[in-house]
Every structure is written in structure tokens, then in C-alpha cells.
Specification:
Number of helices: 5
Number of strands: 0
Order of helices and strands: HHHHH
Distance between the termini: 54 Å
Radius of gyration: 24 Å
Strand content: under 5%
Mean pLDDT: 81
Structural class: mainly alpha
Largest sheet: none
Length: 127
């Protein structure tokens, strides 16, 4: 039953994804790109994941605001909050993904390494 629910969920989400206008998809992609660039730039300078996370999201929001402000100056266009939301969602998505895949690595236990060395030397002695 659970497998059927998962299959139905993905099937319905794929068919609904086709209803998203191309403009919103482009805004989402722009948010992904600007969010990743903002994260990478700040992380390379500070080595702080929290600051980089915030900067990545703020970079994508800033790009969205700049684009929508420019669009509002064009004849026949207006500031579209949904486009801004799509851009921000792209930035949030990429930054959350980066955080999930860049978990802190566990430090090796020095005592464990010391006992491992003794254990291996003992095994060599036995053989």
C-alpha cells in the first residue's frame, strides 16, 4: 500500500509539474544559480556554513527583486510576486540541498586510533 501511495504521489506531481509556466521555471533556475553562487562566495571567504546559507538565499532574493524591479519599468509589465517567489524558492532549494550533502565530518577518536595500532601489531605478532 505504501509503494502504491508513493507511485501515485510521484505520478501526480509529474503531471502537475507540466502546468508550471516556463517563466516560473526560468525564475526557479535563476534562483538556483544565484543561490549557489552566493553560498559558494561567502563560504569561500568565511568558512561559515550558516553565513553562507543565509547569503545564498539572500542572493537569490536580491536577484529576484532586481529582475522584477527591472520588469516593472518596462511597458506592459508589473512587479510579479509569484516570479519573485519562484526565484527565492530556487535559492532556498539549492541551499538546503547543499546543507544536506555537506554534513560535518566526524572527528576520529584518537584513543580508537591508538588501540587500533596496538591491535594490528598484536595480530601481526600472532601470525
Amino acid at each position: 500500500m505504501k509503494k502504491l501511495a508513493v507511485v501515485l504521489f510521484f505520478t501526480l506531481s509529474i503531471t502537475n509539474a507540466q502546468d508550471i509556466p516556463k517563466d516560473k521555471k526560468l525564475h526557479f533556475q535563476a534562483g538556483v544559480i544565484t543561490g549557489a553562487i552566493g553560498y559558494d562566495f561567502v563560504y569561500s571567504k568565511t568558512k561559515d556554513r550558516n553565513k553562507a546559507f543565509a547569503a545564498g538565499i539572500l542572493t537569490s532574493v536580491l536577484a529576484g527583486v532586481a529582475k522584477e524591479t527591472y520588469d516593472s519599468t518596462r511597458p506592459g509589465n508589473k512587479f510579479d510576486v509569484k516570479d519573485l517567489g519562484a526565484t527565492a524558492l530556487g535559492g532556498i532549494s539549492v541551499n538546503v540541498t547543499i546543507q544536506l550533502f555537506n554534513k560535518k565530518k566526524k572527528k576520529k577518536n584518537k584513543k580508537h586510533e591508538k588501540w587500533k595500532k596496538y591491535y594490528l601489531s598484536y595480530l601481526r605478532w600472532l601470525l
